[in-house]
Amino acid sequence: MVDQPLWEQIGSSFVQHYYAVFDSERENLGAIYIDSSCLTWEGQQYQGKTAIVDKLKSLPFSKIAHNITAQDHQPTPDCCILSMVVGQLRADDDPIMGFHQSFLLKNINDAWVCTNDMFRLAIHNFG
Amino acid sequence: MVDQPLWEQIGSSFVQHYYAVFDSERENLGAIYIDSSCLTWEGQQYQGKTAIVDKLKSLPFSKIAHNITAQDHQPTPDCCILSMVVGQLRADDDPIMGFHQSFLLKNINDAWVCTNDMFRLAIHNFG
């Protein structure tokens, strides 16, 4: 049995924690961000713990469930961890939609925090 | 008119260049990677310019066209640029498929290189 590299263990633990909190009490996600963290949510940019949590709290659904299809993790040259998630979600009783999200995790004062977060629904324009 | 932030200009120039080269002469993509660069392609990991280019060259199609649906860019705390792309591609005469790709760009010796690259087709298991 091959042990998972450390960055994969950290990345997949983060991803599991993130979606568990998002689906049950997303107002508590502030703990994973710092004041310089950036969130880009469907193209809109937010910076800092407060602005990010305000955005997440304001999302117009009361219940949501994420299902992860694939997740990848890599170490970066600056000792961070880059994670990319592909999945599906269901918000309230809307149809199931695809999504993708990327996170950059950094170790600050012995804790892993999310410094960069990007989210997009998988919507394509067949223009 | 609001100027784009520098990281957006750099990120979007990189993305435009990457897919233009990928679609016309992907064996030349080695120039954007360094020896510590990581590629995760559909869950398979490759490290270094040579291994990455060998993988890209071995992909089993002779022509490909990417179409970008959305791209997001963020500055990171270590002065890198994180980019996430959502799009569609057509390989040879296969059906059009969704994909997503994340890049981490770092400035080394006055040039922007790609240190981290993750690619996934948008395939979900409705298990």
UniProtKB/TrEMBL annotation, chains A, B:
Main location: cytoplasm
Compartments where found: Cytoplasm; Nucleus
Keyword Nuclease: no
SUPFAM superfamilies: NTF2-like (SSF54427)
GO biological process: mRNA transport; protein import into nucleus
Keywords: Cytoplasm, Nucleus, Protein transport, Transport
Origin superkingdom: Eukaryota
Cellular component GO terms held in the UniProt record: cytoplasm; nucleus
Domain NTF2 as annotated: residue spans: 10-121
Signal peptide: none
InterPro entries membership: NTF2, NTF2-like_dom_sf, NTF2_dom, Nuclear_transport_factor_2_euk
Protein task: Has a role in nuclear-cytoplasmic transport of proteins and mRNAs.
Protein name: Nuclear transport factor 2
Gene behind the chain: NUTF2
